[in-house]
Protein backbone atom coordinates (compact mmCIF):
# COMPACT_ATOMS: atom_id res chain seq x y z
CA UNK A 1 0.00 0.00 0.00
CA UNK A 2 1.08 3.57 -0.69
CA UNK A 3 1.61 6.00 2.19
CA UNK A 4 2.29 9.71 1.72
CA UNK A 5 4.40 11.42 4.40
CA UNK A 6 4.06 15.22 4.42
CA UNK A 7 6.24 17.23 6.82
CA UNK A 8 8.62 20.14 6.29
CA UNK A 9 11.17 18.49 8.62
CA UNK A 10 13.11 16.22 6.28
CA UNK A 11 14.66 14.28 9.15
CA UNK A 12 11.22 13.33 10.45
CA UNK A 13 10.11 12.32 6.96
CA UNK A 14 13.23 10.19 6.59
CA UNK A 15 12.71 8.50 9.96
CA UNK A 16 9.05 7.69 9.29
CA UNK A 17 10.01 6.41 5.85
CA UNK A 18 12.40 3.90 7.43
CA UNK A 19 9.78 2.71 9.95
CA UNK A 20 7.07 2.20 7.34
CA UNK A 21 9.29 0.70 4.66
CA UNK A 22 10.28 -1.94 7.20
CA UNK A 23 6.55 -2.78 7.42
CA UNK A 24 6.34 -3.20 3.66
CA UNK A 25 4.69 0.10 2.71
CA UNK A 26 5.55 2.07 -0.43
CA UNK A 27 6.40 5.65 0.51
CA UNK A 28 5.76 9.00 -1.19
CA UNK A 29 7.22 12.19 0.33
CA UNK A 30 6.11 15.82 0.37
CA UNK A 31 7.42 18.80 2.33
CA UNK A 32 4.40 21.14 2.27
CA UNK A 33 0.68 20.97 1.56
CA UNK A 34 0.98 22.00 -2.08
CA UNK A 35 3.38 19.15 -2.83
CA UNK A 36 1.05 16.74 -0.99
CA UNK A 37 -1.95 17.80 -3.08
CA UNK A 38 0.02 17.31 -6.28
CA UNK A 39 1.03 13.77 -5.29
CA UNK A 40 -2.50 12.81 -4.18
CA UNK A 41 -3.90 13.91 -7.53
CA UNK A 42 -1.28 12.00 -9.53
CA UNK A 43 -0.77 8.82 -7.49
CA UNK A 44 -2.93 6.18 -5.84
CA UNK A 45 -2.37 7.02 -2.16
CA UNK A 46 -3.98 4.88 0.54
CA UNK A 47 -3.05 6.89 3.67
CA UNK A 48 -1.50 10.27 4.47
CA UNK A 49 0.61 11.34 7.47
CA UNK A 50 0.14 15.12 7.49
CA UNK A 51 2.08 17.65 9.57
CA UNK A 52 0.12 20.74 10.65
CA UNK A 53 2.69 23.55 10.64
CA UNK A 54 4.30 23.83 7.18
CA UNK A 55 5.28 26.63 4.76
CA UNK A 56 3.27 27.58 1.63
CA UNK A 57 0.23 25.49 2.66
CA UNK A 58 -0.26 24.07 6.14
CA UNK A 59 -1.70 20.67 6.97
CA UNK A 60 -5.14 21.97 7.90
CA UNK A 61 -5.70 23.67 4.54
CA UNK A 62 -4.22 20.72 2.64
CA UNK A 63 -6.52 18.30 4.48
CA UNK A 64 -9.59 20.37 3.65
CA UNK A 65 -8.66 20.41 -0.03
CA UNK A 66 -7.93 16.67 -0.10
CA UNK A 67 -11.29 15.98 1.54
CA UNK A 68 -13.03 17.74 -1.36
CA UNK A 69 -11.79 14.93 -3.65
CA UNK A 70 -10.69 11.90 -1.60
CA UNK A 71 -11.81 9.87 1.41
CA UNK A 72 -8.43 8.26 2.15
CA UNK A 73 -7.32 8.15 5.82
CA UNK A 74 -5.35 11.15 7.08
CA UNK A 75 -3.36 11.09 10.33
CA UNK A 76 -2.29 14.51 11.57
CA UNK A 77 1.24 15.01 12.95
CA UNK A 78 2.03 17.97 15.19
CA UNK A 79 4.45 19.08 17.89
CA UNK A 80 1.48 20.69 19.63
CA UNK A 81 -0.51 18.73 22.18
CA UNK A 82 -3.35 21.18 22.92
CA UNK A 83 -6.87 19.82 22.55
CA UNK A 84 -7.74 22.75 20.24
CA UNK A 85 -5.32 21.56 17.54
CA UNK A 86 -6.55 17.99 17.83
CA UNK A 87 -10.21 18.98 17.57
CA UNK A 88 -9.52 21.38 14.68
CA UNK A 89 -7.63 18.69 12.78
CA UNK A 90 -10.45 16.21 13.21
CA UNK A 91 -13.06 18.80 12.25
CA UNK A 92 -11.37 19.59 8.93
CA UNK A 93 -11.32 15.93 7.97
CA UNK A 94 -8.43 14.13 9.68
CA UNK A 95 -9.12 10.58 10.88
CA UNK A 96 -6.56 10.45 13.67
CA UNK A 97 -3.97 12.58 15.44
CA UNK A 98 -0.52 11.83 16.86
CA UNK A 99 1.73 14.23 18.75
CA UNK A 100 5.46 14.58 18.07
CA UNK A 101 7.73 13.20 19.37
CA UNK A 102 5.96 9.88 18.91
CA UNK A 103 6.76 6.27 19.61
CA UNK A 104 7.47 4.47 16.29
CA UNK A 105 5.44 1.46 17.44
CA UNK A 106 2.44 3.69 18.18
CA UNK A 107 2.75 5.36 14.78
CA UNK A 108 2.85 2.00 12.99
CA UNK A 109 -0.14 0.77 15.00
CA UNK A 110 -2.15 3.88 14.07
CA UNK A 111 -1.27 3.49 10.40
CA UNK A 112 -2.27 -0.20 10.37
CA UNK A 113 -5.51 0.56 12.20
CA UNK A 114 -6.58 3.26 9.74
CA UNK A 115 -5.69 1.17 6.70
CA UNK A 116 -7.55 -1.84 8.11
CA UNK A 117 -10.67 0.27 8.66
CA UNK A 118 -10.35 1.80 5.19
CA UNK A 119 -10.28 -1.63 3.55
CA UNK A 120 -12.89 -3.30 5.77
CA UNK A 121 -15.44 -0.52 5.28
CA UNK A 122 -15.10 -0.87 1.53
CA UNK A 123 -13.80 2.65 0.95
CA UNK A 124 -10.73 1.36 -0.82
CA UNK A 125 -11.42 0.24 -4.36
CA UNK A 126 -10.40 -3.36 -4.96
CA UNK A 127 -9.75 -3.85 -8.64
CA UNK A 128 -11.53 -6.98 -9.79
CA UNK A 129 -11.74 -6.31 -13.52
CA UNK A 130 -15.11 -4.56 -13.26
CA UNK A 131 -14.85 -0.76 -13.15
CA UNK A 132 -17.75 1.54 -12.30
CA UNK A 133 -18.66 5.19 -12.29
CA UNK A 134 -22.30 5.86 -11.56
CA UNK A 135 -24.34 3.95 -14.14
CA UNK A 136 -21.28 3.26 -16.32
CA UNK A 137 -19.84 -0.26 -15.91
CA UNK A 138 -16.82 -1.51 -17.84
CA UNK A 139 -16.27 -5.28 -17.49
CA UNK A 140 -12.77 -6.21 -18.60
CA UNK A 141 -13.42 -9.95 -18.37
CA UNK A 142 -16.56 -9.92 -20.50
CA UNK A 143 -15.28 -6.99 -22.62
CA UNK A 144 -18.64 -5.24 -22.24
CA UNK A 145 -19.78 -1.69 -21.49
CA UNK A 146 -23.08 -1.08 -19.71
CA UNK A 147 -24.79 2.28 -19.21
CA UNK A 148 -27.79 2.40 -16.88
CA UNK A 149 -28.35 -1.33 -17.28
CA UNK A 150 -28.11 -1.45 -21.08
CA UNK A 151 -25.16 -2.83 -23.04
CA UNK A 152 -23.47 -0.36 -25.35
CA UNK A 153 -21.65 -1.65 -28.46
CA UNK A 154 -18.07 -0.37 -28.64
CA UNK A 155 -15.04 -1.09 -30.80
CA UNK A 156 -11.87 -2.57 -29.24
CA UNK A 157 -10.18 0.85 -29.28
CA UNK A 158 -13.21 2.50 -27.69
CA UNK A 159 -13.28 -0.23 -25.06
CA UNK A 160 -9.57 0.28 -24.37
CA UNK A 161 -10.06 4.01 -23.81
CA UNK A 162 -13.07 3.46 -21.55
CA UNK A 163 -11.30 0.77 -19.54
CA UNK A 164 -8.24 2.98 -19.01
CA UNK A 165 -10.27 5.99 -17.89
CA UNK A 166 -12.90 4.14 -15.82
CA UNK A 167 -10.31 2.00 -14.05
CA UNK A 168 -8.66 5.30 -13.04
CA UNK A 169 -11.85 7.33 -12.55
CA UNK A 170 -11.09 10.89 -11.52
CA UNK A 171 -7.56 10.82 -12.93
CA UNK A 172 -6.79 12.98 -15.97
CA UNK A 173 -4.90 11.42 -18.89
CA UNK A 174 -3.31 13.44 -21.67
CA UNK A 175 -4.05 12.44 -25.25
CA UNK A 176 -0.49 11.18 -25.53
CA UNK A 177 -0.84 8.93 -22.48
CA UNK A 178 -4.17 7.57 -23.74
CA UNK A 179 -2.67 6.82 -27.13
CA UNK A 180 0.38 5.07 -25.70
CA UNK A 181 -1.70 2.98 -23.30
CA UNK A 182 -4.42 1.93 -25.76
CA UNK A 183 -2.55 1.73 -29.06
CA UNK A 184 0.59 0.41 -27.30
CA UNK A 185 2.95 2.50 -29.40
CA UNK A 186 4.67 5.88 -29.04
CA UNK A 187 2.50 8.93 -29.67
CA UNK A 188 3.67 11.63 -32.03
CA UNK A 189 0.49 13.46 -33.05
CA UNK A 190 -2.33 11.70 -31.17
CA UNK A 191 -4.71 14.64 -30.82
CA UNK A 192 -7.02 14.02 -33.80
CA UNK A 193 -7.03 10.24 -33.40
CA UNK A 194 -7.91 10.28 -29.71
CA UNK A 195 -10.40 13.13 -30.07
CA UNK A 196 -12.35 11.28 -32.76
CA UNK A 197 -12.65 8.17 -30.61
CA UNK A 198 -13.66 10.20 -27.57
CA UNK A 199 -16.40 11.88 -29.61
CA UNK A 200 -17.72 8.50 -30.73
CA UNK A 201 -17.64 7.15 -27.17
CA UNK A 202 -19.61 10.15 -25.93
CA UNK A 203 -22.24 9.58 -28.59
CA UNK A 204 -22.68 6.06 -27.25
CA UNK A 205 -22.56 6.51 -23.46
CA UNK A 206 -23.85 10.06 -22.88
CA UNK A 207 -27.45 11.22 -22.90
CA UNK A 208 -26.21 14.61 -24.10
CA UNK A 209 -22.73 14.33 -25.67
CA UNK A 210 -22.33 18.12 -25.57
CA UNK A 211 -22.88 18.11 -21.80
CA UNK A 212 -21.28 14.80 -20.77
CA UNK A 213 -21.86 13.23 -17.38
CA UNK A 214 -19.06 10.68 -17.57
CA UNK A 215 -16.33 11.43 -20.13
CA UNK A 216 -15.06 14.91 -19.32
CA UNK A 217 -12.47 17.09 -20.99
CA UNK A 218 -9.99 18.95 -18.79
CA UNK A 219 -8.99 21.80 -21.06
CA UNK A 220 -5.33 21.95 -21.91
CA UNK A 221 -4.62 18.65 -20.14
CA UNK A 222 -6.69 15.74 -21.43
CA UNK A 223 -9.66 13.55 -20.52
CA UNK A 224 -11.05 11.74 -17.51
CA UNK A 225 -14.03 9.66 -16.47
CA UNK A 226 -15.84 11.49 -13.70
CA UNK A 227 -15.77 9.62 -10.40
CA UNK A 228 -19.45 9.28 -9.46
Describe the structure.
- By secondary structure, the protein is α/β, with parallel strands linked by helices.
- Helix content is 41%, strand content 20%.
- It contains 8 helices and 11 strands.
- Strands 2-1-3-4-5 form a 5-stranded parallel β-sheet, with helices on both faces. A 4-stranded antiparallel β-sheet has the order 6-7-8-9, with helices on one face.
- Strand 7 (136-139) and strand 8 (144-147) form a beta hairpin.
How much is the average pLDDT?
Answer: 86
CATH C-level category of the largest domain:
Alpha Beta
Radius of gyration: 20 Å
Structural class by SSE content: alpha/beta
In the CATH hierarchy, what is the superfamily of the largest domain? Response regulator
Shape: elongated
The largest β sheet comes out as: 5 strands, parallel
Number of domains: 2
Strand fraction band? 15-25%
**Total E-strand runs:** 11
Strand order of the largest sheet: 2-1-3-4-5
Distance between the termini: 24 Å
What is the count of DSSP helices, taking H or I runs of 4+ residues? 8
Task: Describe how the helices and strands are arranged.
Layout: E1 2-6, H1 10-21, E2 26-30, H2 33-42, E3 47-51, H3 59-67, E4 74-78, H4 83-91, E5 96-99, H5 104-120, E6 130-133, E7 136-139, E8 144-147, E9 150-151, H6 156-167, H7 175-183, H8 191-205, E10 215-218, E11 222-225
Parallel strand pairs: 1-2, 1-3, 3-4, 4-5
Antiparallel strand pairs: 6-7, 7-8, 8-9, 10-11
Helix pairs in contact: 2-3, 6-7, 6-8, 7-8
Amino acid sequence: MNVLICDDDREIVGAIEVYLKNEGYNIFKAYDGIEALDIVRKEEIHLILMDIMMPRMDGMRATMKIREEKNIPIIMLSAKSEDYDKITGLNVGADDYITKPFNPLELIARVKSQLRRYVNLGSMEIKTGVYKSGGLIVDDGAKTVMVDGEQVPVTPIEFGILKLLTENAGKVFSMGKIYEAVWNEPSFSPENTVAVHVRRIREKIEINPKDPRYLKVVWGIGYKIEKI
